[in-house]
From TrEMBL:
<dbReference type="Pfam" id="PF00155">
    <property type="entry name" value="Aminotran_1_2"/>
</dbReference>
<dbReference type="InterPro" id="IPR015424">
    <property type="entry name" value="PyrdxlP-dep_Trfase"/>
</dbReference>
<dbReference type="GO" id="GO:0030170">
    <property type="term" value="F:pyridoxal phosphate binding"/>
</dbReference>
<dbReference type="InterPro" id="IPR050596">
    <property type="entry name" value="AspAT/PAT-like"/>
</dbReference>
<keyword id="KW-0663">Pyridoxal phosphate</keyword>
<feature type="domain" description="Aminotransferase class I/classII large">
    <location>
        <begin position="145"/>
        <end position="509"/>
    </location>
</feature>
<keyword id="KW-0032">Aminotransferase</keyword>
<comment type="similarity">
    <text>Belongs to the class-I pyridoxal-phosphate-dependent aminotransferase family.</text>
</comment>
<dbReference type="InterPro" id="IPR015422">
    <property type="entry name" value="PyrdxlP-dep_Trfase_small"/>
</dbReference>
<protein>
    <submittedName>
        <fullName>Aspartate aminotransferase</fullName>
        <ecNumber>2.6.1.1</ecNumber>
    </submittedName>
</protein>
<dbReference type="InterPro" id="IPR015421">
    <property type="entry name" value="PyrdxlP-dep_Trfase_major"/>
</dbReference>
<dbReference type="InterPro" id="IPR004839">
    <property type="entry name" value="Aminotransferase_I/II_large"/>
</dbReference>
<dbReference type="GO" id="GO:0006520">
    <property type="term" value="P:amino acid metabolic process"/>
</dbReference>
<dbReference type="GO" id="GO:0004069">
    <property type="term" value="F:L-aspartate:2-oxoglutarate aminotransferase activity"/>
</dbReference>
<keyword id="KW-0808">Transferase</keyword>
């Protein structure tokens, strides 16, 4: 049996046209500064036990239900808010340093998906722009990678393996990551294949923070951020949330640097913010690494670092105390496969082997061919390769039975799909930004990612904004509170849908803000 002997035609969806012109920048924001507002403080001030995350969640939801009035769905929650009184004074630092805050946001995140969007409110949701992932049926896994899955299945390649992943796969990932670097820094010994990004961060938190002194300095989690990632760190260590401002597509790391102590055990940082789409600057990252103690492990979540300008990664990302996490969930449209990798110092990865073999055994060997082919072809794209030669064919083991002609056809298909997909998703994001800027909102134009942050000016509560927009337009947006944006009507929309669906959803939002016709 030979890999790529039967290559399916590339799936090449039409690239959407350019967005409608929008004169001026009145509908766009230059930046975003996370803050803890009075509404957030008020919930903590009224809680009988401000360390109870479920009470905090119910008070927040109760206030929303109370303010919805006759349109409320849960009278008991509304009454709980009405009966609550102010019991204490609370400062923003109290909120950012509380363990209850992290769990409260995670419980609200769970409620949003389980009880509201896909629960009681599902009949209202005509268009869902709150998912945070790609419409796989429109922009899914390239056909070449699907052929890899079929091949692995036919070969019965799903047995036990090295707990860090099969060595040829790790070699391919190391070569790909070296192509992203200003200076090559990696070998197979720097790579561990993982069960996706969320699992990788969870396992790293467990591995790094296990046995940490409970009275030591807290781990630092930059916000905005993804609640499951922050919660998994908070389960193992004290945590301090550190708001990072974004300006002109760049995220400042100065607040993280200021928060460091010599015994800070871990930093969790997204290199591209969710939902800001703003990127960390390499020079700022170098300052952070220099300021941190060598014992402070800096975990970089790189999963949103795509759909933007290609920039080389500096050598600082290969520092001994830096761990980089990637997954197939965003860039390759495969969140359900739960596959990815981490890059770290050789000694760290060697120690991680024992943790992996004890805790989960190893990554899913069934997907090794996918990861290897993906890593090699992505490297070829980065280096400008158009047609593979005998040298590229020699990168693969004889077990694949591969021939140069089929490999060339498979790479042409992969290259065409990847380039078309990137162009299409970038165009959809531009359409969304342009349309949203025409309504009473401030759009933080993303430089990366499939998400766009929008602040609707008529709301001071992002969850209330979600409820009102869902009722009035049938469009679901993602409340900013669920990414630790603790102020205003900030929401996130995901534009990676079918063009017709996205246009319809944006049109509904625009109609919801249109002035009522006289008469």
């Amino acid at each position: 049996m030979r890999l790529f002997e039967s290559v399916r035609p590339a799936r090449l969806p039409a690239v959407p046209g350019p967005p409608a012109s929008f004169a001026g920048r009145d509908g766009f924001a230059d930046g975003f500064v996370p803050a803890v507002d009075d509404r957030m403080l008020d919930v903590y001030a009224r809680a009988r036990n401000p360390e109870d995350p479920l009470e905090l969640r119910d008070l927040w939801l109760g206030r929303v239900e109370c303010e919805l009035g006759a349109r409320a769905h849960r009278a008991a929650q509304a009454e709980r808010w009405r009966s609550a009184t102010v019991l204490r004074t609370v400062e923003p630092a109290d909120v950012l340093g509380s363990r209850a805050t992290v769990r409260f946001v995670k419980e609200l995140f769970n409620w949003f998906f389980r009880d509201d969007l896909y629960g009681e409110l599902r009949p209202q949701a005509t268009h869902i722009l709150s998912g945070g992932s790609i419409d796989e049926q429109a922009w899914g896994l390239p056909q070449t990678l699907k052929d890899c899955i079929r091949f692995a299945l036919d070969m019965d390649w799903y047995g036990y393996s090295d707990s860090r992943g099969r060595r040829p796969v790790r070699e391919a990932v190391a070569e790909y990551e070296n192509a992203r670097m200003e200076t090559p820094a990696y070998r197979a010994e720097n790579v561990a294949v993982t069960l996706g990004g969320t699992f990788a961060v969870s396992s790293l938190a467990d591995f790094v923070l296990h046995g940490a002194a409970p009275a030591g300095s807290p781990a630092l989690c930059a916000i905005p951020n993804y609640p499951p990632l922050v919660e998994t760190v908070a389960r193992r260590s004290q945590v301090r949330l550190v708001p990072l401002p974004s300006l002109d597509g760049r995220t400042s790391l100065q607040p993280l640097i200021d928060a460091l102590t010599p015994d800070t055990p871990m930093i969790l940082l997204q290199t591209v913010g969710n939902p800001t789409g703003a990127a960390v600057v390499e020079a700022d990252l170098a300052r952070l690494v220099r300021a941190a103690s060598p014992s402070t492990m800096i975990v970089l979540d790189e999963c949103h670092e795509w759909l933007g300008p290609v920039r080389p990664c500096s050598a600082v990302r290969a520092a001994p105390n830096v761990i980089r996490v990637s997954s197939l969930s965003k860039t390759w449209s495969a969140p359900g496969l739960k596959v990815g990798w981490l890059m770290a110092d050789e000694r760290f990865v060697a120690d991680y082997y024992e943790y992996a073999s004890t805790t989960f055994g190893g990554p899913p060997s069934f997907f090794y061919t996918v990861v290897e082919v993906l890593a090699r072809m992505e490297r070829w794209l980065l280096t400008g390769l158009v047609t593979p030669t005998a040298a590229e064919l020699a990168e693969f083991e004889p077990a694949y039975g591969m021939r140069l002609g089929p490999l060339s056809a498979a790479y042409r298909s992969y290259r065409a799909e990847r380039l078309r997909r990137e162009a299409g998703l970038t165009a959809l994001r531009g359409q969304a930004s342009s349309a949203l800027a025409r309504i009473p909102a401030r759009v933080l134009e993303p430089h990366y990612s499939i998400n766009t942050m929008v602040e609707f000016t008529g709301w001071d509560d992002s969850y209330r904004c979600f409820r009102d927009l869902l009722r009035d337009s049938g469009v679901s947006v993602f409340p900013g509170i669920l990414t630790f944006c603790f102020s205003g009507g900030v929401v996130r929309i995901t534009s990676s849908r079918r063009e017709q669906e996205l246009r319809a959803a944006l049109g509904r939002l625009e109609s919801a803000f249109a002035p009522a016709s006289p008469g």
